[in-house]
């Protein structure tokens, strides 16, 4: 079987409306949308459009969602891959796959390339040399750096990468002309959780007793992904109980269930 190297989405429907909270991050990526939509406006004054930005933050906070929304807002193709798949699935061919990816994106430019979990390929070189596949990873990383350096000023491909461990990344990645911008994507505060609930409650048949303020207060520490899970889980619980709408109790049960899941996950990690 032929493993998929990367996903290509030429008709991204995600927009900033789907991304709740994250006002600062949205403002920063709005600039990237403008570069992609109207590059000449910037280059004709001699400016260089950035080649890459790093989205940094805990799991499930909307990094992938935000990157996709950039492509959706700019109406450009979205090429995506995950660093961990890359290292696991493409032993021996990582570098050539990176070359293919950039070639495709350049042909379809303007475009976004999104690399999730870039730490899997972008860890500082020469450390943790016990994995055996380290040469492979280094070759892949070197190819990525080469590709980014090779972009001309008018290539019009912007590479977004996500990580929750910016501290382990090879400093070479952050050098000027590579991922020289960092955009922080944090866990939502109570007001942002409210906004995230609003987004994920949109498709749900809600009972009149549902109170978004209450739900946001019940979910400290939850990421956007956790909240999306709560909403879906609540709908499934309500359906299982033969209800016509999803009510407060279904949400409380869903919150308990998600907290249970999070506790289990944390136990495994520590
Ligand atoms: P990871 O680091 O685990 O890859 P991530 O930061 O890329 O996580 P996403 O994959 O973007 O997180 O989020 C998963 C899902 O959680 C999204 O598809 C969306 O449904 C929901 N979600 C996360 N953050 C938000 C947000 N700010 N607004 C609305 N939905 C969100």
TrEMBL record:
Acts as a processive, ATP-dependent zinc metallopeptidase for both cytoplasmic and membrane proteins. Plays a role in the quality control of integral membrane proteins. ATP binds at residues 57-64. It comes from Aquaticitalea lipolytica. Homohexamer. It is found in: Cell membrane; Membrane. Residues 49-189 form the AAA+ ATPase domain. The lineage of its organism: Bacteria, Pseudomonadati, Bacteroidota, Flavobacteriia, Flavobacteriales. Belongs to the AAA ATPase family. It comes from the Bacteria. The chain holds residues 179 to 448 of 670 of the full protein. This is ATP-dependent zinc metalloprotease FtsH.
């Amino acid at each position: 079987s032929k493993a998929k190297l990367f996903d290509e989405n030429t008709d991204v429907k995600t927009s900033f409306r789907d991304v709740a909270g994250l006002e600062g991050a949205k403002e920063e990526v709005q600039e990237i949308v403008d570069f992609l939509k109207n590059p000449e406006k910037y280059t004709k004054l001699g400016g260089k459009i950035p080649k890459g930005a790093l989205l940094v933050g805990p799991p499930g906070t909307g990094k992938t969602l935000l990157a996709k929304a950039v492509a959706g807002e700019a109406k450009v193709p979205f090429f995506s891959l995950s660093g961990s798949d890359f290292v696991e699935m493409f032993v021996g061919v990582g570098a050539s796959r990176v070359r293919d990816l950039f070639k495709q994106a350049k042909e379809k430019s303007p475009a976004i390339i999104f690399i999730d979990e870039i730490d899997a390929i972008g860890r500082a070189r020469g450390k943790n040399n016990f994995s055996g596949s380290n040469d492979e990873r280094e070759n892949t990383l070197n190819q990525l750096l080469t590709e980014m350096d090779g972009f001309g000023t008018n290539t019009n491909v912007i590479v977004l990468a996500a990580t929750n461990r910016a501290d382990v990344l090879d400093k070479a990645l952050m050098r000027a002309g590579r991922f020289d911008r960092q955009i922080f994507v944090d866990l939502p505060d109570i007001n942002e959780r409210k906004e995230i609930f609003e987004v994920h409650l949109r498709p749900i048949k809600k009972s009149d007793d549902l109170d978004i303020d209450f739900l946001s207060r019940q979910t400290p520490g939850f990421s956007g992904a956790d909240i999306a899970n709560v909403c879906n889980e609540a709908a499934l619980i309500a359906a299982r109980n033969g209800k016509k709408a999803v009510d407060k109790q279904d949400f409380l049960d869903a919150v308990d269930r998600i907290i249970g899941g999070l506790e289990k996950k944390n136990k495994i990690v520590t």
